[in-house]
């Protein structure tokens, strides 16, 4: 059963959910082990204040969503704040123990222009497309069963300097802990040959994708994309560059359009290690989950992001309590992807 947790309301959001007649929970209720559809009303000032109350709860109760599955509908009166509000909630949900299916967000901007491509493909109006996608999300959430693997295949992707990188040191420490239970592989993108997406039209991109390549070809098409398709869990190493993902990782994510138009990545998991020299790791974590779960469609497992602050080379592995945090992070990934408990 899917429960609705309302975080503000507006007339269009209510119309989108009317046919579902979902039972309701309040933001203060017990969420453990449940399937939860969070519905966010966003106006010109941002999200409803109830979202921030919920975020405070999830950030201070790390087991509040233990065993739960979560998805979101964000309905805005303007063109701003819907996606940023959803990303903040998605990160809090994962850190509080929830699992998010791929494409766990249906977003409606004020104009609904963000639905115009799908509306044309479906032969529906923009509003009809939005309502249909909400129904489809609720149905996917109700039947969502995270896949399990006897020996998961883990692909670690990074673009870090081998000599200095705290992020790479943390990532390799995670792989070391996973290697007895998983098949692990590492691919570095720091070779100067990763071109960003050139923004091909949909049909041109589809043409290249049908031939398992991209306009640029090169290492991404020849090595990285096949490795992604062969993997069960993608582990991204994300050093915080000016409160943003690094350029090579962004190029990889952008170029993955050629994969997702041809392949459903919804049976794969995504996780990340974020190291910040000063602060702001949550900003980078939100970018990663927004791109890879909410957009590209990979599953975001519980506690999928390891966030650390370390500037000087070697600081990350000298941080107080880091061995315990690495153990817990690695064990959590192995449990959810491997033979862990299934959702209710």
Question: How does this structure look, described?
Answer:
- With 344 residues, the chain is an alpha/beta fold.
- The chain is 41% helix and 18% strand.
- The protein has 13 helices and eleven strands.
- It has helices spanning 11-18, 49-60, 82-95, 116-122, 126-143, 166-178, 202-210, 218-230, 247-255, 257-260, 281-295, 315-318, 322-337, and strands spanning 2-7, 24-25, 35-43, 46-47, 69-76, 105-108, 153-158, 183-188, 233-239, 269-276, 305-309.
- The strands form two sheets. Strands 1, 2, 3, 4, 5 and 6 form a six-stranded mixed β-sheet that branches. Strands 8-7-9-10-11 form a five-stranded parallel β-sheet, with helices on both faces.
- Helix 3 (82-95) links the parallel strand 5 (69-76) and strand 6 (105-108).
Structural class computed from helices and strand pairing: alpha/beta
**How does the overall form come out from the CA principal axes?**
globular
**What is the number of helical segments per DSSP (H or I, 4+ residues)?**
13
In the predicted model, the low-confidence regions spanning at least 5 consecutive residues are: none
Order of helices and strands: EHEEEHEHEHHEHEHHEHHEHEHH
- Evaluate the radius of gyration: 20 Å
N-end to C-end Cα span: 10 Å
């Amino acid at each position: 059963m899917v429960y609705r947790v309302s975080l503000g309301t507006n007339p269009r959001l209510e119309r989108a959910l009317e046919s579902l007649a979902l039972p309701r929970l309040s933001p203060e209720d017990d969420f453990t082990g449940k399937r939860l559809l969070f519905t966010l009303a966003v106006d010109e000032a941002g999200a409803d204040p109830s979202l921030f109350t919920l975020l405070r709860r999830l950030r201070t109760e790390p087991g509040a969503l233990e065993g739960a599955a979560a998805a979101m509908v964000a309905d805005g009166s303007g063109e701003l704040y819907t996606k940023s509000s959803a990303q903040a909630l998605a990160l809090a949900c994962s850190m509080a123990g929830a699992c998010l299916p791929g494409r766990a967000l249906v977003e409606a901007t004020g104009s609904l222009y963000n639905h115009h491509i799908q509306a044309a493909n479906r032969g529906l109006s923009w509003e009809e497309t939005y309502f249909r996608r909400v129904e489809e999300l609720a149905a996917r959430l109700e039947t969502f069963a995270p896949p399990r693997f006897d020996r998961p295949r883990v692909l670690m992707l990074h673009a870090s300097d081998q000599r200095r990188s705290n992020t790479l040191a943390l990532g390799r420490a995670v792989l070391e802990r996973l290697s007895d239970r998983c098949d692990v592989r590492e691919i570095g993108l720091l070779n100067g040959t990763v071109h960003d997406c050139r923004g091909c039209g949909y049909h041109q991109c589809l043409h290249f994708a049908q031939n398992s390549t991209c306009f640029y070809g090169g290492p991404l098409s020849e090595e990285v994309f096949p490795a992604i398709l062969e993997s069960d869990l993608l582990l991204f190493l994300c050093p915080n560059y000016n409160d943003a993902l690094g350029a090579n990782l962004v190029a990889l994510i952008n170029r993955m359009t050629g994969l997702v138009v041809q392949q459903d990545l919804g049976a794969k998991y995504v996780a990340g290690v974020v190291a910040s020299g000063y602060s702001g790791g949550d900003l980078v974590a939100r970018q990663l989950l927004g791109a890879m779960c909410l957009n590209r469609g990979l599953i975001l497992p519980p506690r999928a992001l390891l966030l650390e602050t370390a500037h000087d080379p070697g600081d990350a592995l000298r941080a107080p309590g880091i061995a315990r945090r690495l153990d817990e992070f690695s064990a959590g990934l192995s449990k959810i992807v491997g033979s862990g408990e299934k959702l209710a």
